[in-house]
């Protein structure tokens, strides 16, 4: 795809990242957990388009649902008319949300979902003061960039919101350095109280948090951290927004939503990525009293369109019918156990839950990040026929979020390619 890469570079802005440099990949077809590229090679996909291909490629049930809609001749007219699949998906999501009396609003992306949640919170609390967590990623719209905790991901140092930062993003790293979970939670709560002392706490609209930081390198706080936060937030009426764009739909294996590991019920949950299995679909599900507080009519031309909604209903039904959360727990354990058993000096922490797994690549025998070695492992994986992601705060985390339909045999295949790639770079 050399020629296509040159054309891409000639017409796209320079800040759009493309994996594999001059050897960029054009994926032309997919089947199950495998994709075929224009170079003629087939790859096992452990990244799923950044945790977006949640069910797999070319899934008959999803294809049929979308094709049924296409056969009507209507791709979309307007959400000003009733859309049956929109109501059906909203009913299902309200049911699985864990939020009583939930209302659902659909968007096209995770950024728009978070933008909407921030807007709801700001409206109901009459304030644009938001608490966000360091090293977070919440999107690329103006407000979501403002709560994105790492400058190189936020594209702008200007902010339409008044944001106070919680250092717990850094404290999570303290946890990796061996701090006990209880101490991390206590320190994080102290930090929250300190931040609230610098503002008028009653004026803060909301805290937004990822149950596991995704772009930040699959970093999770101790279970219960958000619960400890919510106790303090509740004293001041501050709302909690859980960004489940990466952690939702059973990916973590142990729970349907990432927030459930924390003993909280968020006021608002945002979702996107996997629920469309590739179709543009995001949204917010939240408490009726918050979701209905927006005084004006708010509308999205494409959010809730029949094609995405048809896909979403089929995805959610497939997910629940096939217990993919259980499968994520089982196949995730194969990967986590296998990776943790590797005795390689360049492997730092192996972390994650279910099928959301990160491998930290470090200078041998230290905890120092080694982004250059990370790229070498990443390239070796591709050479071996495996697609993974990379990222993290220091660019030294290999990220894996395969479709939740991953089989045990595929997990072992991927594990063996990873082991080979890590060993070759370690040598
Ligand atoms: N929140 C989280 C946790 C994400 O990981 C992302 C995307 N990486 C977003 C929000 C933004 O979603 P989108 O790219 O669909 O706008």
TrEMBL record:
The protein's Enzyme Commission number: 2.6.1.44
Record InterPro entries: Aminotrans_3 (IPR005814), PyrdxlP-dep_Trfase (IPR015424), PyrdxlP-dep_Trfase_major (IPR015421), PyrdxlP-dep_Trfase_small (IPR015422)
Cofactor(s) annotated in UniProt: pyridoxal 5'-phosphate
EC category: transferase
Subunit structure: Homotetramer.
Assigned protein family: Belongs to the class-III pyridoxal-phosphate-dependent aminotransferase family.
Name used for this protein in its record: alanine--glyoxylate transaminase
């Amino acid at each position: 795809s050399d020629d296509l890469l040159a054309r891409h570079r000639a017409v796209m802005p320079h800040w759009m990242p493309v994996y594999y440099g001059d050897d960029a990949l054009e994926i032309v077809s997919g089947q199950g957990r495998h994709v075929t590229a224009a170079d003629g090679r087939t790859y096992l996909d452990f990244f799923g388009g950044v945790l977006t291909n949640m069910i797999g490629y070319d899934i008959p049930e999803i294809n049929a649902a979308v094709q049924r809609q296409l056969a009507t001749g209507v791709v979309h007219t307007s959400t000003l008319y009733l859309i049956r699949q929109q109501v059906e998906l909203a009913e299902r999501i309200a049911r699985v949300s864990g939020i009583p009396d939930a209302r659902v609003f659909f968007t096209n992306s995770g950024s728009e979902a978070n933008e909407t949640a921030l807007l709801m919170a700001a409206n109901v609390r009459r304030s644009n003061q938001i608490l966000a967590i360091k090293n977070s990623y919440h999107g690329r719209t103006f407000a979501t960039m403002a709560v994105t905790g790492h400058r190189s991901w936020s594209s702008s140092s200007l902010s339409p919101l008044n944001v106070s930062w919680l250092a717990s993003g850094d404290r999570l790293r303290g946890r990796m350095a061996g701090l006990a979970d209880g101490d991390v939670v206590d320190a994080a709560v102290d930090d929250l109280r300190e931040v609230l002392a610098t503002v008028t706490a009653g004026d803060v609209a909301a805290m937004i948090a990822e149950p596991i930081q995704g772009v930040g390198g699959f970093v999770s706080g101790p279970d219960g951290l958000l619960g400890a936060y919510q106790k303090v937030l509740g004293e001041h009426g501050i709302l909690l927004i859980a960004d489940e764009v990466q952690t939702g739909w059973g990916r973590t294996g142990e729970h349907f939503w990432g927030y459930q590991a924390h003993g909280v019920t968020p006021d608002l949950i945002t979702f996107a990525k996997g629920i469309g299995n590739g179709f543009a679909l995001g949204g917010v599900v939240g408490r009726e009293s918050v979701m209905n507080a927006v005084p004006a009519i708010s509308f999205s031309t494409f959010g809730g369109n029949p094609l995405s909604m048809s896909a979403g209903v089929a995805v959610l039904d497939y997910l629940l019918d096939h217990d993919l959360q259980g499968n994520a727990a089982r196949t995730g354990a194969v990967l986590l156990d296998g990776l943790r058993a590797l005795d390689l000096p360049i492997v730092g922490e192996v972390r994650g839950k279910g099928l959301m797994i990160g491998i930290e690549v470090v200078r041998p025998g230290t905890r120092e990040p080694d982004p250059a070695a990370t790229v070498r492992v990443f390239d070796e994986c591709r050479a071996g026929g495996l697609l993974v992601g990379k990222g993290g705060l220091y660019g030294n985390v290999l990220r894996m979020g395969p479709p939740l339909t991953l089989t045990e045999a595929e997990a072992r295949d991927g594990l063996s390619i990873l082991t080979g790639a890590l060993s070759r770079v370690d040598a």
